[in-house]
Structure formats: C-alpha cells, structure tokens
C-alpha cells in the first residue's frame, strides 16, 4: 500500500501521471489529450481535449449495474415525507426535467438558476442542467430578494427553477414572492420560471413566464434526453461565494476536473464504497452540498440522503435515527450543528444503533476541541475535520484515511490533501515559512488541483487579482486564512487573515480566544471579535451563549460567569488574550449556513452600519447583542 506521503508526493511531482490514473475513475466519451495544461498561469485547464458529462458519471453509468439501488433519499421532517429514488428512477426523473428545461429554451452553455428548498427536485434540476450541458447556478434558498437579484444579473439565466416555499421548524417560508421581487429588481429577465408546487403556500403565476413542474413533467414522462458530451473545461456550474463586500463572486467550476476530483475523493478521503450510504447535512446552496450531497456520492455509486429540516426537530435524535434507518456509513456535517446538539442530552444520539457509521466529517469552520470531544464520545466514532472553501470544491486539508489511516490531532483539520501544494507564506514579504509552528498565510502553489475554481464567472481579472496577486512578489493562491504547521505536516487554522486582531501590539487570532472560552465548562458557544479601542488599538470582545439558558437574563449570573471566563482565558492563553468584556446572549448572529457573522457583531460593537445582513438566520440575534451591550 502506498503511504500517504508518497501518494501526495506523486500528486505534485508526477502530476500528470498521478491525475491520469485518477481520471480512469470516471467515464470519458473522448479521453483527455492533455492532463494539465498550465501554459497560461494561474489558469489551469485540466484534462484538456477530453469530453465527458457530469450527469452521465453520476447516474447513467450506474443504471445497468445498480438500477434498483437507492440513489437519492429525500427526507423532510418539515413535511414528514421520505422519498427514495433508485438509480433507474432518478435517471428517468432527471430526463423529464432535462426535457422540460429544453422545452423552455435551455441550450448548452445557458445558465439555469436554481432557487430551491432542500427537496429532491432541486437535485434533479442540478443533474438535469449538467446533463444537457447547461450551467447551473444554485442560490441558497435563504437569500432574500436583493441578493437573489444581484446573482440573477450576474448569471443571466435562461430559466429559473424555484418552488412555492421552503419550510423551517414547521413554518412555511414562501419563496415565490421573493423570487418575483428579485425579478422586479434585476435587469436581466429570464425566458421562463419553472415552479415546483409543494402545496405549502398559494402562488400567483405570471402568464407566459411561469410554468408548473407537475404539468411539464406530465408532458415529458417518457422523455429520453441523451447526455450532452462537453469538453472537460466546459463549466458545470457557478456558485456565488458568501463574500461580505460588493458584487458576489461567481466561482466557476469545470466539468472534467471536478468529476475526477470528486471521484478520487471518495475512496482516498472517505474510504467509501459503492452501495454505501452518505448523509451530508449541508444545503445544496453551499459548496459542500454540491459536492457531497449531490455529485460525489452519486459519482461513486452510493446512496445519498438529502435532508430538509433542523437537527433538533422533532427531537435532537432525528439525524441519528436516519443513520440507523438507512444504515448510513458516512456522515458529513458542520461544527455549528454539533454545537446545537451539544446543548441537548447526548442520550438522543446514543439511543440509536450507529454501528453502520464509519466516521463523521466536519467542515466549514473551526472545529473546537470541546465540540470535537463531546461528539466523539457521544457517537463513539472518529471525527474528521476537513478544511476547504467554496473556491476549492473539495478539501484542501484533511486526513486521507482511504490511502493510509492517520491519527487525527485535535484542533487540526490534518495534512495537505493530494494535489494541493500548500505553503505557509509570510503575507508581508512573500517568503515561504518552513519551520514548524511558524504562523503564515495558507497559500496554494499553482496549478490548483482538479475541481478547484477555473476562474470567476465572466471576470478573469478579478480571479487573478483577488486570489493570485495579494501576496507580494508571488503568483500564488491565497486562502486568506492564517495557519501553522507542526513538524509532522498537520496544519492548524488560526482564522481569516482579515479577522486578525491586534491588541496593544500583540497579534491575536480571535479563533484562539474562542477556542479557549468554548473550553469553559459553562459555555455552549462563543464569538470573539476585535473592536476598536482608543488605548490598545483593538480589544477582544466575547459574545457567549451559556449552557444554562437562564444566565443571559440574570445580571448577577452574567457577572459571575464573565469573571470566571476571563480567569479561564488568563490561565490558558495569558492576560494578553483576555477579552475586554464577555456579553451573554441566548443566540449568536449566524448565516443560515451556520457561519458566525463576526463582521456584523464587530460593526454593532463599534456602533457602525452592519452592511448586508441578508444571509442572517435570525435578526433577533443582533438585537440581543445590542441589548446585552446596553445593559453593560
Ligand atoms: P466557505 O467558502 O464559505 O466555505 O468558507 C471557507 C472558509 O471557512 C475558509 O477560508 C475558512 O476560513 C473556513 N473554514 C472552512 N473549513 C474550515 C475548517 N475545517 N477549519 C477552520 N476553518 C474552516
């Protein structure tokens, strides 16, 4: 068996040989003429000259051998429905949707915008788009009309696929009025809107523009729509990053490189086998959802569970009941979801038979040690952190246990994944940092591996300037994350380069302080931000959720716990890292994908305008922050 070190070395030093072998994992109509064309850095053209199709690799090629095997299992604890599509059924359903899109005028290279809740039709629309060579652009269902309008204007879709409503915690969340509003705001007008009517809220249809999926589906029940073979470098989708400023960036993904990267990740990273069941709790509006709810499990011939609902309804055991019921082998979630569960009794998890589960992968934000410890003892399975970005499409750092089993280190997402030539760089001088535990910017030497963004949609210059020109004197991809690497090659993420705070001349990562505070026995969750201070330049302020819900409303209890938390940080990190204040709230401001809105917190703390809050889960959270600060 090849060691991981050797596997990684080959992927960088014998790049073409390595990736030519990985390319064998997928079907090609025309095999690639070249493995990596990097003649025009930083633009990499993976598998140039090859022709393939993402939908063919996800569905069609499995139908003969596993037509009756479950492919997509759509579970909704909002509508209390569970629908299983076998590979053969999904094949038929995707062709119906593909025929409907074609009937509405979609051709190869056209965009199909998808603004949908977590229902099977969303996955079907994605697969149908790539089947006919169209480019999908999923907009997270929680975005409001302004954000949707900007994305419509950037993607310029021929058709938008949407639904009457989503549902959250038992309440219908209408989508159609928001879509209509967005279409009023946007200057681009799509030819048609295709709507799934779930019967949750009434819809007003615009004559000539709006079409019902049920009607079009009925017209195309027997549709046979062959896969359109596209160049490996043909875009499969764009996905807008959750960037905080200005115009959103449309991360553009190719077809061949993405399919190969995902296909290779299933055995190498996840140690997964065809026929097993993958359960990723993300949302199709995020990159993790694209890669690990939809494409990778299907490319690998697995069943994939798509879940609509919250993790604690009808009770905090719901996900684990699905693990038992569907014999889930691989589960993928985010630390924030685990911190939600952590507020409840671990018995909810342990009462189910989790013996099918190999491991739980967590990504998207720092995995703090207390959360990792809690979930690991609750489910008795390995917890595997993995670090990546919308831009990369699959993990940059993790443990490739399918290549070689490696011990995890708490606080570290692991080592550089094969294909990624990761470097730590001094952000000011551009010098490479090679000594253990030197703090630097995590950067990736080009070419980025297959599956990573090709460019920014219709903005090559922005791609180059944003990601490749921000480190002096080097053409290198900047992740904008700080990190260190230990002597064995394990990385530790210290937060965004843009989240760094400087207290009285000391550079501190808010992440380090958060990790310390969340280790306090009475704290469930915390966010730390740097706030301008006349004396020290910046000070750290902590906003914390206590494990005991009564603390936030009780000034005496707040004061006592604040003191105790400060003592804890003093003892762990030193007084320099002690937050100036710890405010208690019952929830933190987060995006619907669970990321802390640190910038909004910081703005409130500095009494500035908060900017765009359209991604915020619950506006009441910021109000609580304001009130906690007024109470003092
Ligand atoms: P997004 O593109 O929205 O997925 O956000 C990517 C950013 O999330 C990264 O640049 C990191 O700052 C953060 N991130 C993702 N995964 C991890 C992880 N495992 N540990 C720490 N930070 C992470």
Describe this structure in words.
This protein has 632 residues and is α/β, with parallel strands linked by helices. It folds into two domains: 4-309 and 386-480, Rossmann fold; 504-631, 2-Layer Sandwich (GMP Synthetase, Chain A, domain 3), CATH 3.30.300.30. The chain contains 19 helices and 32 strands. Strands 12-11-8-6-7-14-15-25 form an eight-stranded mixed sheet, with helices on both faces. It has a seven-stranded mixed sheet with strand order 5-4-17-16-18-19-20, sandwiched between helices. A hairpin with a 5-residue loop joins strand 26 and strand 27 (491-496). Adenosine monophosphate (AMP) binds next to strand 20, strand 26 and strand 27. Adenosine monophosphate (AMP) is lined by residues 241-242, 287, 363-367, 385-390, 413, 479, 481, 493, 496.
Bound molecules: adenosine monophosphate
Q: What is the strand arrangement across the widest sheet?
A: 12-11-8-6-7-14-15-25
What is the global morphology? globular
Level-1 CATH class name of the largest domain: Alpha Beta
Which fold name is given in CATH as the topology of the largest domain? Rossmann fold
Q: Note the total helix count.
A: 19
- The secondary-structure class comes to alpha/beta
**Cα end-to-end separation:** 60 Å
Number of strands: 32
What is the name of the CATH superfamily of the largest domain? ANL, N-terminal domain
Classify the oligomer.
Answer: single chain
| Low-confidence parts | none
Biggest sheet layout: 8 strands, mixed
The averaged pLDDT comes out at 92
The rounded Rg comes to: 24 Å
Helix content: 25-40%
CATH architecture of the largest domain: 3-Layer(aba) Sandwich
Strand content is 15-25%
The number of distinct structural domains comes to 2
GO molecular function: propionate-CoA ligase activity
EC number: 6.2.1.17
Family: Belongs to the ATP-dependent AMP-binding enzyme family.
Keywords: Ligase
């Amino acid at each position: 068996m090849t060691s991981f070190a050797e596997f990684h070395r080959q992927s960088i030093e014998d790049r073409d040989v390595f990736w030519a072998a990985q390319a064998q994992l997928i079907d090609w109509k025309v095999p690639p003429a070249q493995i990596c064309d990097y003649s025009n850095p930083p633009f990499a053209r993976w598998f140039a000259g090859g022709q393939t199709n993402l939908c063919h690799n996800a569905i069609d090629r499995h139908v003969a051998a596993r037509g009756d095997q479950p492919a997509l299992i759509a579970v909704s604890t909002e509508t209390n429905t569970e629908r299983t599509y076998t590979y053969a059924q999904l094949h038929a359903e995707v062709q119906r949707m593909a025929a409907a899109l074609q009937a509405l005028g979609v051709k190869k290279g056209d965009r199909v915008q998808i603004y949908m809740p977590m229902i099977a039709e969303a996955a079907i629309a994605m697969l149908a788009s790539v089947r006919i060579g169209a480019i999908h652009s999923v907009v997270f269902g929680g975005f409001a009309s302004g954000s949707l309008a900007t994305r419509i204007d950037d993607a310029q879709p021929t058709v938008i696929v949407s639904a009457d409503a989503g549902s959250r915690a038992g309440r219908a969340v209408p989508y159609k009025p928001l879509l209509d509003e967005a279409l009023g705001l946007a200057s681009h007008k799509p030819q048609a809107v295709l709507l799934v009517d779930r019967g949750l809220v009434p819809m007003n249809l615009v004559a000539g523009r709006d079409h019902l999926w049920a009607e079009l589906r009925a017209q195309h029940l027997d549709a046979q729509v062959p896969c359109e073979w596209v160049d490996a470098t043909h875009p499969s989708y764009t996905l807008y990053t959750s960037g905080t400023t200005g115009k959103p960036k449309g991360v553009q993904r190719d077809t061949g490189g993405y399919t190969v990267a995902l296909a290779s990740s299933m055995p190498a990273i996840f140690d997964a086998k065809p026929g097993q069941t993958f359960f990723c709790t993300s949302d199709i509006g995020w990159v993790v959802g694209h890669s690990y709810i939809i494409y990778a499990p299907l490319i690998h011939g697995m069943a994939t569970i798509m879940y609509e609902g919250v993790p604690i309804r009808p009770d905090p055991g719901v996900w684990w009941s699905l693990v038992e019921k569907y014999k889930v082998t691989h589960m993928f979630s985010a630390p924030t979801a685990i911190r939600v569960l952590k507020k409840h009794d671990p018995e909810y998890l342990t009462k189910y038979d989790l013996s099918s589960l190999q491991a739980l992968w967590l990504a998207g934000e720092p995995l703090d040690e207390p959360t990792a410890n809690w979930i690991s003892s609750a489910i008795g399975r390995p917890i595997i952190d993995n670090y990546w970005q919308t831009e990369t499409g699959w993990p940059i750092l993790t443990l490739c246990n399918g290549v070689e089993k490696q011990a995890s280190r708490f606080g570290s997402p692991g080592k550089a994944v094969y294909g990624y030539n990761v470097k730590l760089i001094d952000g000011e001088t551009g010098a490479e940092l090679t000594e253990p535990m030197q703090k630097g910017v995590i950067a990736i030497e080009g070419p980025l591996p297959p599956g990573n963004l090709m460019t920014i949609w219709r903005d090559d210059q922005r791609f180059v300037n944003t990601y490749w020109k921000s480190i002096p004197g080097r053409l290198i991809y900047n992740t904008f994350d700080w990190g260190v690497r230990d002597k064995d090659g394990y990385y530790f993420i210290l937060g965004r380069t843009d989240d760094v705070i400087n207290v009285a001349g000391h550079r501190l990562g808010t992440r380090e302080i958060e990790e310390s505070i969340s280790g306090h026995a009475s704290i469930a969750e915390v966010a730390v931000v740097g706030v301008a201070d006349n004396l020290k330049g910046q000070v750290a302020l902590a906003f914390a959720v206590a494990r005991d819900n009564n603390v936030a409303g009780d000034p005496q209890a707040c004061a006592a716990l604040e003191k105790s938390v400060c003592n804890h940080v003093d003892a762990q990190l030193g007084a320099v890292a002690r937050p100036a204040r710890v405010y208690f709230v019952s929830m933190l401001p987060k995006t619907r994908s669970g990321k802390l809105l640190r910038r909004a917190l910081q703005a409130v703390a500095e009494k500035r305008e908060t900017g765009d809050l359209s991604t915020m889960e619950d506006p009441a959270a910021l109000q609580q922050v304001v009130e906690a600060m007024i109470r003092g």
